[in-house]
Write a structure and sequence with these properties.
Elements lengths: L1 H9 L4 H25 L18 H18 L5 H19 L2 H6 L10 H18 L7 H7 L7 H21 L3 H6 L4 H9 L7 H6 L5 H33 L8
Helix pairs in contact: 2-4, 2-6, 3-4, 7-8, 8-10
Amino acid sequence: MADWFQRTFVEAGRLPLLCFLAGMVFGFAFIRMSVRLIRAKVRWWPGNFTPGGLHIHHVVFGVVFMMIGGVAALAIPDHHEGWRATAAVVFGIGSALVLDEFALILHLRDVYWTEEGRISVDALFVAFALTGMLLLGLRPLGLDEAAAWVAPDEPGAVALTVLVILADLALAVVTLFKGKVWSGLIGLFMPVLLVVGALRLARPSSPWARWRYRADTPGGRRKLVRARWRERRLRVPVIKVKIWVQELLSGRHDEPSR
């Protein structure tokens, strides 16, 4: 086990990334436990931090942790792996605290427990997924595919790499405009998802559907009907399962918007 850890993370230079992910998971677990205890009004838990009547959200502490961890990682020499790993943990904790209130930053109001607040959990899950894929050694934007097709020192290697990156970015943009956020982001590491996402029907509420699936054209009307059917029959059940898992981990987002 120790040899596997040494080869997979230490020798491959992924130890700071692993510590960053561990810090994010710990930060998310701790802060969600804290806010759920506060929401339940548990007496023995300290509660919100309100010096002088001012409610300081945990995104503030997250920014401080990110600054400390980020600056420390830049200042610590590369050969001090233990200290760099510690800085990565601090940065990961700060990232979790910031992303956990991402919805508040986006809406500029307290929507933490409302329907809009779910986007904070989505942002954290995306961060976990992308970091995990980097830990597995996957490289974004089709760089693995470009490296498999041509050696770096061969003529045209740079041009091919740039072409692959631009193609993947174009597919990612189309996929995101079609309302498929997870496919667009994870597809940066698995280009086949970008191809599928770009070719398949868009979600009916997406910008792509508003632009291309016009009800005043026969072809657009047919695509819109099919997109709505797919959303109702296929996607909605999956979303319900995702929401159930999220609320199991992070609590119910059921307060009315303010």
